[in-house]
Design goal:
Elements lengths: L29 E4 H6 L12 E6 L13 E4 L3 E5 L4 E5 L5 E4 L16 E3 L4 E6 L3 E5 L5 E6 L9 E4 L4 E4 L9 E6 L5 E6 L13 E9 L2 E8 L4 E6 L4 E4 L2 E4 L6 E6 L2 E9 L20 E8 L3 E8 L7 E8 L4 E6 L18 E2 L5 E5 L1 H10 L22 E6 L2
Parallel strand pairs: 1-21
Antiparallel strand pairs: 2-28, 3-4, 4-5, 5-6, 7-8, 8-9, 9-10, 11-12, 12-13, 13-14, 15-16, 16-17, 18-19, 19-20, 20-21, 22-23, 23-24, 24-25, 26-27, 27-28
């Protein structure tokens, strides 16, 4: 059976003027100088992201064991820890276990994936129930009903919330439904849509595909497809395409160097990543040759003081490289360094920091397996004597992971 493999990737024209497309802005567009930072790479330091660091050892009991390869959400007072099958809530200050939220399955209250999206307007966690529902739970683990997604059989891959609506983003990994964003309400009623900002790629059949590979570059998951013709296409997952900042909804698409503010069905340019000679334009996004130097701007974490981001170079090569970047919003300075080196902990001398989440309060966080922490402590006995790391000395082989959180400046 033939499948259509259309990947919505490319560069958006900022001057488009029709409804649901980018609009011109009366304010000067903020520019992040990626090209300049790539010319002069400099070691990144944790003090650029925060004034201090907290180490939260998650409580470990039989009822709250964290699964493999976990991710986190940093809320006002809680840490939500989720893996492939479970979602757990811990106190952000003490690490005390608070609740288990929902479950996988086929019953009316079950969800399809344990990865939630937090709605700060009502304090609930939303989980995808394929093919067309969002299951709602509070932080105490109580089921709070569901929302029907009004576009069957297609459904968005990630979501963001306002006081009156839910905004979903379509990854368009397979097939092209013509939508980039869907606006709907808690009653499951469609409010509006925003068409895809990216040029549509030619139709592809399963017979046109040479290979499909899955890889991870920094925080991004990459589904890389190469075709018999020699060109390639990449779908990006596992990073935020929609997020909220100062009660504004931000949106950034793959293969697009611009962040937009979503205002109804209009997208207003907000921040542009200036990639210079490394720019990857729409006309070249499927070329598998002579693009080793092109940069794909991937993960973006936005706080009041800084913007942390990642860029992938040589995406279609055998050995792509990922770079971390930090943009200081007060000084307008951008610094970048290889992601494999992490961010040096110049505050407490602990292992390299790799942001995996951030909070509305301006915190950055990562989660580290207890075994890795114990190994580092054994290999760095002098640094381990730092009093601020004392909580880590109580870890055992059976301990839950540790969450490391920066203190905002």
């Amino acid at each position: 059976m033939k499948k259509e493999w259309l990947y919505a990737v490319g560069l958006v024209c900022l001057t488009a003027a029709c409804t649901g497309t980018p609009q011109s802005s009366t304010t000067e567009l903020c520019s992040i100088d990626v090209a300049g930072a790539m010319e002069k790479p400099a070691e990144l330091k944790l003090s650029e992201l925060g004034s201090d660091v907290r180490y939260v050892s998650l409580e470990t009991t039989d009822s709250c064991l964290v699964g493999g390869n976990p991710d986190i959400l940093l809320l006002d007072e809680e840490i939500v820890v989720f893996s492939r099958q479970t979602c757990l809530v811990f106190d952000k200050e003490s690490g005390k276990f608070l609740s288990k939220v929902g479950h996988l399955g086929d019953d009316p209250e079950a969800y399809s994936t344990a990865a939630p999206t937090y709605n700060d307007a009502n304090g609930l966690l939303y989980f995808m129930r394929r093919p067309g529902k969002l299951q709602k739970y509070d932080l105490q683990g109580n089921y709070r009903g569901s929302v029907t997604i009004p576009t069957p059989p297609d459904s968005p891959s990630d979501f963001c919330f306002t006081d009156s609506s839910i905004i979903g983003h379509y990854a368009n990994i397979v097939g092209d439904n013509g939508r980039a964003l869907l606006l709907f309400n808690e009653a499951g009623e469609q409010i509006d849509t925003v068409p895809s900002l990216l040029p549509v790629l030619p139709d592809r059949g399963i017979d046109d595909i040479n290979s499909i590979n899955v890889k991870r570059q920094g925080n991004a998951g990459i589904i890389l497809t190469t075709f018999q013709s020699g060109d390639a296409s990449a779908s990006i997952a596992g990073i935020p395409f929609l997020w909220k900042s100062d009660n504004e909804i931000r949106y950034k698409e793959s293969f697009n160097d611009t962040i937009y503010t979503v205002e109804g069905n209009t997208l207003t340019p907000y921040i542009a990543f200036s990639t210079g000679k490394w720019h990857w334009g729409a006309e070249a996004r499927t070329e598998s040759k002579d693009n080793e130097k092109r940069l794909l701007v991937g993960c973006v974490f936005e706080t009041d003081n800084t913007i942390f981001f990642q860029c992938i170079r040589g995406l279609y090569t055998d050995e792509p490289e990922t770079f971390n970047g930090i943009y200081d919003r007060k000084t307008n300075i951008t610094r970048m360094y290889a992601e494999k080196e992490g961010i040096k902990d110049d505050l407490n001398g602990f292992m390299a920091f790799r942001p995996k989440a951030y909070s509305a309060q301006g915190e950055y966080g990562m989660i580290v397996d207890a075994g890795k922490v114990m190994t580092w402590m054994e290999e760095n006995p002098e640094a381990a004597e730092n009093e601020k790391l004392s909580v880590l000395k109580e870890l055992t082989d059976d301990s839950n992971p540790v969450v490391i959180i920066t203190v905002p400046k």
